[in-house]
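Hey all, quick one. A colleague (J.T.) asked me to put the adenosine-5'-triphosphate job into the tracker so the inputs and the structure tokens live in one place instead of scattered across chat threads. No bug as far as I know, just bookkeeping. Sequence used:
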Amino acid sequence: MAQPAISVNDLHYSYGDTLAVDGISFDVAEGEVIGFLGPNGAGKSTVVKMLTGQLTPQKGSASLLGMDIVKERKRVQQEIGIAFETTNLYEQMSAVENLDLFAKLYKVPNFDAMGLLEKVGLGGREKEHVASYSKGMKQRLMMARALVSDPKMLFLDEPTDGLDPVSTETIHALIRAATQNGTTVFLTTHDMVEADKLSDRVAFLNQGKIVALDTPARLKLSFGMRALKVEIELPDGGTEARELSLDLDQTAQDVFDLFKNERILTVHSEEATLEDIFFDITGRGLQG
Ligand code: ATP
């Protein structure tokens, strides 16, 4: 296998007595989107802070794009784009000024702020002070800022938290476009629908440990119960909903009997969500 874009080996971090990250290890391939999913306090931000050089791991090691995150921190930081919810934008400056300043810091030659702002859907509003922007516009600008240096790797922390569907879709499209160019994306979220939609693989983080890591499809196959939901017509003209598990030994017979004996009005299949699977594994939900 080619060298992984992200390689993490037994990382640990405690804040005083609070063990936030408890020995996690994983690899991410170039161009892959890895979704880190877990409830509040699971340790997601602490992992991101270590990988992006804001915290130094207390044990273990990791490399990004072949560079050690501690020994080559500065070089790593030059190669990655970061959009955190807490990332500060300069509110008294315009969007163009924010991006130009960042491009200077990153020494990006021939930087085209307007082109990037058009891409994130902020064309026409580029001269206004960021202070007057809505939350969705700030999120788009933060995404643009993360893309300024055309990075090979993006770290996105809850990139669509609290956004309307249109802003969310813009950000999802930008993430997909970046991965098509080979950018590796590390996405943290509590939004299981977002994780399912965007991630090639999902890591479930609970109490500082990875408790599952696989493609959404395989997680659903391994842990989820699949079901068939059927609506049947009753002899008196009423209707009744029935649900059949697709994972039992007698499933074939049950389905056969149902279709033979009943008048079926509608049928659809239902699979477990990532939230259901997280609950099965940890006994807790993603929102808590
Ligand atoms: P959220 O979804 O709420 O952002 P998270 O999964 O990102 O949560 P972390 O912020 O990494 O989780 O927190 C992991 C643990 O470390 C929690 O118990 C949290 O209270 C603790 N923690 C985080 N930051 C600090 C800090 N600066 N000082 C002390 N404890 C902290």
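Adding what we noticed when we looked at it: The chain has ten helices and 13 strands. Residues 15, 18, 20, 38, 40-46 surround adenosine-5'-triphosphate (CB under 6 Å).
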